[in-house]
Write a structure and sequence with these properties.
Helices cover about 20% and strands about 30% of the residues. The chain is α/β, with parallel strands linked by helices. The longest helix has 18 residues. The structure holds (2S,3S,4S,5R)-3,4,5-trihydroxy-6-oxo-oxane-2-carboxylic acid (GCB). The site of (2S,3S,4S,5R)-3,4,5-trihydroxy-6-oxo-oxane-2-carboxylic acid has 9 residues, from loops.
């Protein structure tokens, strides 16, 4: 009996850990949208009183005797998108519930379905439309939407969202991070209109290992009648049609070289695909249509694989000249959210000589990947499984997997994305392995075309001059990310000169972090901490050391720009900033920027795919 109960309990637990398929609308920018960005009314609610007294009803007193102890209309405002911490000085350190409200006018259309879409809300969001709850979302960096076709009024409406960024042990990330816990509606909020039957999602990439075969799928939502989907790539004279199965899904698989010519005209024969690479970031307009819906976007085609300890782009070895970056707004600070922010950050990466960027430590704004597609920057995208987590908690695993799922759902058609990272510097304790193995397997199941990685911890060996990577998680990854801080947390920069590396796997290695802190303009001797000279010297010695690792396939030093962190206290040096940026938060390049740039310029001369 006891055993039976245990089995039931165990199966419930594993069922809880199995996330539902992503139900996001693919390619929101390719749809008809109405922006709800702008000024929202807000109430700070540290004791979460608003839930009990129903802020979401947005009430006004009925008469002069009526008691209503809040008033959105008279409350302070915040801009959306944007974190609350850097918009109002009284909210800089605030962590907890905060309510947003705004009205909007909407004109209903026949045969149209409407969704309320959030780019991200950190961390927990409860969403209400016209006083009725639409749902909740957990996870601070992934998009979510609710269908409001029946709930939205023709005319005036109001949305209320409670956003709560209180840190929790069972959350992903957990309670301790080296970045600011920016709260709020940090990305775009918009209404999305689609036809009654619409293309909810699709995946279009080269089949694994092929440069001429396109593979993927299209998922329809709604009643269907015609049963055919068409894929067009006008620039390559490609027109492909296939049937939709009764569950609304169409499997796509065709070899471009084997497709026939349109109208039997040689001028309209399919042309071989020009492959995307950082040097030639060719994107094609891809049009998907069927069941009365049509959606298009720009997609590039390339392959990414590993062979022994090499990473191959389009079949040829590539050295990933990378940099790690946080989603911190240049100049003004706070969470970055605009195309201009992203252009500045990626522009700096280009100036540094990068062909690769690590988006640490959580999913960044979707515009980053779209820009990277155009600018020719390969990407490492990551979920915030960071440092210690509640490894045994099925809820935590579920939330981590949901974030992986929704990141993949959002960015799977972005050619720039080469690697999905399942976590950063997770401690090598037995209980964390099952957790991370599960995310790795799930990511592979959702997307077999990308490489799976994680930023791992290396270990000091008994011998002081040896660093070793033997994390058992390495066996489940395609590419090993290694974070190391030789010369900063670990010894002196000179230690790099005689350090030996032992890596237990014949797999490509990306040194995903190394670095040193220096505020811009702080000069002194190269052996004095916090000076630009120290940081520059450390980069010189690190680069020389890392080049001796035979399986080195790339690096993403820490970090492109200084960023806010609650763990960095040193007055006049840190002031709540992690100063390991190669560029200051005001855009000034430090000496180490030029050290890395010189190395990358040299590496760029090595023939690239
Ligand atoms: C790390 C973390 C990163 C920190 C960095 C640091 O290992 O992965 O999030 O910001 O070190 O500066 O200490």
């Amino acid at each position: 009996m006891r055993q039976a109960l245990l089995l039931v309990l165990l199966s419930c637990l594993s069922a809880a850990a199995e996330p539902q398929p992503a139900n996001l609308i693919a390619n929101v920018p390719g749809r008809t949208t109405y922006s709800l960005n702008g000024v929202w009314r807000t109430i700070v609610d540290p004791y979460e009183t608003g839930l009990g007294i129903r802020f979401y009803e947005n009430r006004k007193p009925r008469d002069k005797a009526d008691l209503v102890e809040y008033d959105f209309g008279a409350s302070p405002t915040l801009n959306v998108p944007g974190d609350w911490n850097t918009q109002r000085s009284d909210l800089f350190f605030y962590e907890g519930p905060l309510w947003y409200e705004r009205g909007f006018t909407y004109h209903k259309r026949e045969h149209t379905r409407t969704f309320l879409h959030f780019g991200a809300a950190n961390y927990l969001a409860r969403v209400y439309l016209n006083g009725t709850k639409l749902g909740e979302h957990e996870g601070g960096f992934t998009p979510f939407d609710f269908e409001i076709t029946n709930a939205v009024h023709d005319g005036e409406n109001f949305v209320v969202v409670e956003v709560n960024n209180a840190r929790r042990l069972d959350a992903v990330p957990s309670v301790n991070t080296d970045w600011w816990n920016y709260g709020g509606l940090t990305r775009d909020v918009e209404l999305v209109d689609v036809p009654e039957t619409f293309i909810r999602d699709y995946f279009m990439q080269l089949a694994k290992g092929s440069t001429s075969e396109i593979a993927g799928w299209v998922q329809f939502d709604g009643k269907r009648s015609r049963n055919e989907v068409t894929i067009e790539i006008p620039d390559a004279n490609i027109i492909y049609k296939t049937l939709i199965s009764p569950d609304g899904r169409a499997e796509i698989r065709f070899d471009v070289s084997k497709l026939g010519c349109t109208d039997n005209s040689p001028a309209k024969c399919p042309k071989p695909l020009q492959l995307w690479s950082p040097e030639t970031p060719k994107l094609y307009r891809v049009v998907i249509s069927g069941e009365g819906d049509r959606v298009e976007e720009e997609i590039g085609f390339r392959t990414i694989e590993v062979r022994g300890h090499e990473i191959l782009l389009n079949g040829k070895p590539i050295f990933l000249r990378g940099i790690s970056m946080h989603e911190e707004a240049p100049f003004r600070g706070g969470r970055a959210f605009s195309v201009e922010d992203d252009q500045t950050l990626l522009g700096w990466a280009k100036e540094l000589g990068c062909n690769f960027v690590r988006l640490a430590h959580y999913p960044h704004n979707p515009t980053v990947a779209r820009l990277a597609d155009k600018m020719g920057l390969l990407l490492w995208e990551e979920v915030p499984v960071y440092w210690g987590n509640d490894w045994k908690n099925p809820h935590t695993l579920e939330v981590a997997e949901e974030q992986m799922r929704d990141l993949i759902a959002r960015d799977k058609n972005r050619t720039a994305v080469a690697l999905w990272s399942i976590g950063n510097e997770t401690p090598i304790v037995p209980e964390r392995l099952d957790f991370l193995k599960s995310i790795a397997a799930y990511a592979r199941q959702l997307d077999s075309t990308r490489l799976i990685t994680a930023a791992l911890n290396q270990r000091k060996q008994a011998a002081p001059d040896v660093r070793e990577l033997d994390d058992p998680l390495g066996g489940y990854l395609d590419v090993l990310g290694i974070n190391e801080y030789i010369g900063w947390y670990d010894g002196r920069p000179e230690d790099c000169d005689h350090m030996e590396w032992k890596i237990a796997y014949d797999k490509p290695v990306i040194i995903s972090e190394f670095g040193a802190g220096a505020p811009f303009g702080n000069h002194g001797d190269a052996d004095a901490r916090w000076t630009e000279e120290y940081q520059g010297d450390l980069f010189t010695r690190q680069i020389t050391m890392l080049r001796r690792i035979p399986s080195l396939a790339g690096m993403t030093p820490w970090v492109l720009m200084d960023f806010h962190s609650p763990r960095r206290f040193l007055p006049a040096v840190q002031d709540f900033y992690n100063r390991k940026g190669l560029i200051s938060n005001r855009g000034q390049r430090k000496q180490a920027f030029y050290v890395l740039q010189k190395f990358y310029r040299e590496m760029a001369k090595v023939p690239q795919p």
